[in-house]
Design brief:
By secondary structure, the protein is of the alpha+beta class. It has one helix at about 20-30, and strands at about 50, 55-60. The two termini are about 20 Å apart.
């Protein structure tokens, strides 16, 4: 991983599944918060997305990891 916290590159070869990638991204961005956090729950609501080569936004996990 390199770059600014909000413009990082991630080498997907370092992860074997979406779950590992999700945990790494959660750790990478844990220093950022939006609004108030509800400390009674230990989860944050977000959806992982990426922009494909055609410029379309895709949900991470919609295609097989391989």
């Amino acid at each position: 991983m390199d770059g600014a916290p909000y413009l990082r590159k991630v080498d997907l070869r370092n992860y074997s599944a979406y779950k590992e990638l999700s945990l790494a991204l959660e750790k990478m961005f844990s220093c950022f918060t939006i609004g108030e956090l509800n400390h009674s729950s230990n989860w944050m609501e977000y959806v992982l997305t990426y922009e494909d080569k055609d410029g379309d936004w895709m949900l991470v996990g919609d295609v097989p990891w391989e």
